[in-house]
Automatic annotation (TrEMBL):
<dbReference type="InterPro" id="IPR018300">
    <property type="entry name" value="Aminotrans_IV_CS"/>
</dbReference>
<protein>
    <recommendedName>
        <fullName>Aminodeoxychorismate lyase</fullName>
        <ecNumber>2.6.1.42</ecNumber>
        <ecNumber>4.1.3.38</ecNumber>
    </recommendedName>
</protein>
<dbReference type="GO" id="GO:0004084">
    <property type="term" value="F:branched-chain-amino-acid transaminase activity"/>
</dbReference>
<dbReference type="Pfam" id="PF01063">
    <property type="entry name" value="Aminotran_4"/>
</dbReference>
<comment type="similarity">
    <text>Belongs to the class-IV pyridoxal-phosphate-dependent aminotransferase family.</text>
</comment>
<keyword id="KW-0289">Folate biosynthesis</keyword>
<dbReference type="GO" id="GO:0008652">
    <property type="term" value="P:amino acid biosynthetic process"/>
</dbReference>
<keyword id="KW-0808">Transferase</keyword>
<keyword id="KW-0032">Aminotransferase</keyword>
<comment type="function">
    <text>Involved in the biosynthesis of p-aminobenzoate (PABA), a precursor of tetrahydrofolate. Converts 4-amino-4-deoxychorismate into 4-aminobenzoate (PABA) and pyruvate.</text>
</comment>
<dbReference type="InterPro" id="IPR043132">
    <property type="entry name" value="BCAT-like_C"/>
</dbReference>
<comment type="function">
    <text>Acts on leucine, isoleucine and valine.</text>
</comment>
<dbReference type="GO" id="GO:0005829">
    <property type="term" value="C:cytosol"/>
</dbReference>
<comment type="pathway">
    <text>Amino-acid biosynthesis; L-valine biosynthesis; L-valine from pyruvate: step 4/4.</text>
</comment>
<dbReference type="InterPro" id="IPR001544">
    <property type="entry name" value="Aminotrans_IV"/>
</dbReference>
<dbReference type="InterPro" id="IPR036038">
    <property type="entry name" value="Aminotransferase-like"/>
</dbReference>
<dbReference type="InterPro" id="IPR043131">
    <property type="entry name" value="BCAT-like_N"/>
</dbReference>
Length: 283
């Protein structure tokens, strides 16, 4: 693969960063993941807007404008002949002798991008649906910032795997916040699409935002509010959204079926609507 590192397109084996990089030492960095369909970026604009927000929250000043960032994304897609998958972008505060305080503002940031091949449209989990477990949300208080500090998500995914599940939904004070790497949705028995309102407790998912617009456009009932695992158990359907899955049905919680334990009809309709949106809106 060809990757991008600090202004250069190079072979992945030649891409090296310092052991003093603050991304490595402190997880002092942010990232974005944008899906690629038919060689084009899906929802590039809101991904760039969220990247700007993450940078601002961490007082990182990136000397590249949106056009330059888009050009790097497109170059990487072209150089790797990527048709379907994703582009990952990470920005860290760069390399400096280890100190909790931020280094001088002129310290160059580390900017790295790479592509991954992934079958997004034809994924087995989209057909089978995910088995999830509930776990406590023990992350820090700013889960709305897309930082590279993902250890708790790794730990909970491992725990889900050890228990024979695909993923976990995280619960804080009795309420589901989100999945380990996706936003959590249920569909109630009277057909309302329910997902938690945005706050510092969860990531403002780009797929979540696009889907909510589609839900409203198609006159479906939307309820932006927190819900409990008890409500998930009694829901008609459940699903997750993310740039790397689009929409995956969720069919069991803690080993118990949700609805009839198969991907729900409204979930499957929403997945098709989202894919149509993604194909139409990619650039
Ligand atoms: N929540 C978390 C914790 C995530 O890591 C992700 C994906 N990175 C999402 C939600 C989904 O966000 P998006 O739709 O922008 O991929």
């Amino acid at each position: 693969r060809t990757v991008y590192l600090n202004g250069q397109f190079i072979a992945e084996n030649d891409a090296k960063i310092s052991i003093f990089d603050r991304g490595f030492m402190f997880a002092d960095g942010i990232y974005e993941v944008t899906a690629v369909l038919g060689g084009k970026l899906v929802d590039a604009e809101p991904h760039l807007a969220r990247l700007r927000r993450s940078l601002a929250e961490l007082a990182l000043v990136l000397p590249l404008d949106d056009d330059a960032l888009l050009a790097v994304h497109r170059q990487l897609i072209a150089r790797n002949a990527l048709c379907e998958g994703l582009v990952y972008m990470q920005v860290s505060r760069g390399a400096a002798d280890r100190d909790f305080l931020y280094p001088p503002a002129d310290t160059p940031l580390t900017v790295a991008l790479f592509t991954q091949d992934k079958a997004v449209l034809d994924s087995p989990l989209a057909k089978r649906g995910m088995n999830i477990i509930g776990l406590p949300d023990m992350r820090w208080g700013r889960s709305d910032i897309k930082t590279t500090q993902l250890l708790y998500a790794c730990m909970t995914k491992e725990q889900a795997k050890a228990r024979g599940a695909d993923d976990a939904w995280l619960v804080k004070d009795g309420w589901v916040t989100e999945g380990t790497s996706n936003n959590a949705f249920i569909i109630t028995r009277d057909g309302a699409v329910v997902t938690r309102e945005l706050s510092r407790a969860l990531l403002p998912g780009i797929t979540r935002g696009a889907l909510l617009a589609l839900v409203q456009e198609h006159g479906l009932q939307l309820d932006e509010r927190a819900f409990t695992l008890e409500e998930v158990k009694n829901a008609a359907e459940a699903f997750v959204t993310s740039s790397t899955s689009f929409i995956y049905p969720v069919v069991t919680l803690n080993g118990q079926p949700i609805g009839d334990g198969t991907p729900g009809p409204l979930t499957q309709r929403l997945r098709r609507l989202y894919i149509d949106h993604a194909l139409a809106g990619s650039v």
